Amino acid sequence: MVRLVVRDRESIQEAVRRFRKLVERSGIKKEMRRREYYEKPSEIKRRARLRAERRARRSRFLAGS
Predict the structure, then answer these.
(1) Are 19 and 4 in contact (CB under 8 A)?
(2) How many whole angstroms separate alpha carbon 53 and alpha carbon 44?
(3) Where are the alpha helices (DSSP H) in the chain?
């Protein structure tokens, strides 16, 4: 959960800007986008496998340089 304490003499725009940064850094927006639609467990596993393959391919490419 994100908490924002508004500082003395801080404008609303500055407080909103700080709040947006806090939300972005905490990963709430990313989590909301991920949970926007139901994803089957098989799709989650498939995405994880593809991500691991890309990561392995990238590390092999960088190790060979």
Answers:
(1) yes
(2) 14
(3) 12-26, 28-34, 41-64
> Which residue matches tokens 């500082």?
7
Task: State pTM to two decimals.
Answer: 0.58
> What's residue 65's pLDDT?
64
* Cα angle 48, 46, 44; round to 5: 70
Say which residue the tokens 């924002």 belong to: 4
- Please give the structure tokens belonging to residue 9: 């003499």
pLDDT at 60: 87
Given a cut of 50, the residues of the chain with pLDDT beneath it are: none
CB distance 24 to 33 below 8 Å:
no
How far is residue 32's CA from residue 54's CA, in Å, rounded to a whole number?
25
